[in-house]
Amino acid sequence: xxxxxxxxxxxxxxxxxxxxxxxxxxxxxxxxxxxxxxxxxxxxxxxxxxxxxxxxxxxxxxxxxxxxxxxxxxxxxxxxxxxxxxxxxxxxxxxxxxxxxxxxxxxxxxxxxxxxxxxxxxxxxxxxxxxxxxxxxxxxxxxxxxxxxxxxxxxxxxxxxxxxxxxxxxxxxxxxxxxxxxxxxxxxxxxxxxxxxxxxxxxxxxxxxxxxxxxxxxxxxxxxxxxxxxxxxxxxxxxxxxxxxxxxxxxxxxxxxxxxxxxxxxxxxxxxxxxxxxxxxxxxxxxxxxxxxxxxxxxxxxxxxxxxxxxxxxxxxxxxxxxxxxxxxxxxxxxxxxxxxxxxxxxxxxxxxxxxxxxxxxxxxxxxxxxxxxxxxxxxxxxxxxxxxxxxxxxxxxxxxxxxxxxxxxxxxxxxxxxxxxxxxxxxxxxxxxxxxxxxxxxxxxxxxxxxxxxxxxxxxxxxxxxxxxxxxxxxxxxxxxxxxxxxxxxxxxxxxxxxxxxxxxxxxxxxxxxxxxxxxxxxxxxxxxxxxxxxxxxxxxxxxxxxxxxxxxxxxxxxxxxxxxxxxxxxxxxxxxxxxxxxxxxxxxxxxxxxxxxxxxxxxxxxxxxxxxxxxxxxxxxxxx
Length: 626
Description:
Blueprint: H1 3-13, E1 20-25, E2 29-34, H2 42-46, E3 53-57, E4 60-64, H3 69-78, H4 88-95, H5 100-112, H6 116-134, H7 143-157, H8 159-171, H9 175-185, H10 188-198, E5 205-207, E6 210-212, H11 222-241, H12 247-288, H13 290-307, H14 314-324, H15 329-350, H16 354-368, H17 373-383, H18 385-403, H19 427-448, H20 456-461, H21 465-469, E7 475-479, E8 484-487, H22 495-498, E9 504-510, E10 514-516, E11 521-526, E12 532-537, E13 542-546, E14 559-561, E15 568-569, E16 574-578, H23 580-585, E17 592-596, E18 604-607, E19 613-614, E20 619-624
Antiparallel strand pairs: 1-2, 2-4, 3-4, 5-6, 7-20, 8-9, 8-19, 9-17, 10-16, 11-12, 11-15, 12-13, 13-17, 14-16, 18-20
Helix pairs in contact: 1-3, 5-8, 6-7, 8-9, 8-11, 9-11, 9-12, 11-12, 12-13, 12-14, 13-15, 13-18, 15-16, 15-17, 15-18, 15-19, 16-17, 17-18, 18-19
């Protein structure tokens, strides 16, 4: 993979500089906050060497790369400043799209993703430390154990500082003031006071009659995130009200005088009690319904990964370890990851497709190490049945280990390298759970089977007898997918379509709310909002049907899809229905561009713009090769 060329191609295909807001990345995917999520050429991006999958989640356009995502991201950074202040407003507007739950999990993901390497590394050291002391490789009062304790505990003990920086970047506020808030939570007076209270020798402080309890905020998650979120508003309000001549001195002064006392009186205790409540609730659930809870979480965690909601469980797991010293969630996360790894391994063994075998091999290794997206998106979800097998296997494994009370002593990236974190009297049950998960998943993958894919090389080098007898026609016909009035493409009010940036074509002002297949082919893409659909004909023509203008903002309302992505269709098959009147009442034009997105593959595109009416089944476009 050429990371530099891949970065260049992705940036071009997401819509160019005009459409780029900001971009971040997590362990496996690039996360674009674009101005318009309709502009990216999804199919072309997915076809790039090095891209596993493309999806839109929580208003973000996400490109799944896999283990090389960090290198690709660095190449993207070299090609421009996509996180500059100039695009903040556009980015914020993009992030407001989607429901409140989706936005919440996107915020959590953005805060925790940058600090995961530090957390995972410290967690693994914690596991190694457990092995050292369990097997008496060094005495507990030795220097090596003391040093390992420093390495393992430093990240978790001072976690509020790490979260302060990451949250400040997410909420776009001053990072150093955010660090000052973390310092307020971690001030020695509070830490020592909390220890004294535990020994019965302190009562706390008060401010204007309001109690300011001594609490130990080390390793906590919720108080600092809430504090920095509130800081983002307070800082903005104070800064706007302050005269410019004294702003640089008095803005931070007033903000600190407001925020740190309020944080210690209200936010800190509230967040701390909330964290303790979550930890106690999870403990109760796993102690009283462990098998059921573990089975459901094990089976559904890969589904949570798909929609990005797994990040919402991460702070709970960290909070559990901070409050209780152990966590029930991380072992179940491990079962879920091993299920995806086992399914990909079974595909590697069973498939005859050389391309798929290569992908399955590399993604299996990644999944066993804790990175499951390449296996999930590149192998298991594409074949469907292996993914189902993985859900069943990880559900059974999760139920087994929670039934025996397996816990983790630190938060880690759940993979085979993290096994030391689970060492202890119940470690044997974790190993048995791993074996059950892997065995059940692989057996089910073999039993359920999957439809093997034809290699790309075989497709290009071994044409069928039918292909040899019937060479590809130089003319491809696109029949009208809609009934309505024909409009020349250049008269469409959206310049992206009118100027042919996505390809040549024509537009139809529909008179009924039905879109049918314009030819025999396959559904290459179906947007979640159902307002646009991409097809590929048997002759290779790629067509985009975009119902209305800016109708992505309706988020699927008034649209109903009758096909699925990847489905084969025949000319005339019903694809999408939509309510013309309600779309217009919502303020959106219904004019529908019909675009040949691979126009460059043809010498010319002839639209039927001399006719006044488009009739379903009658020719609308002709694409001619040279």
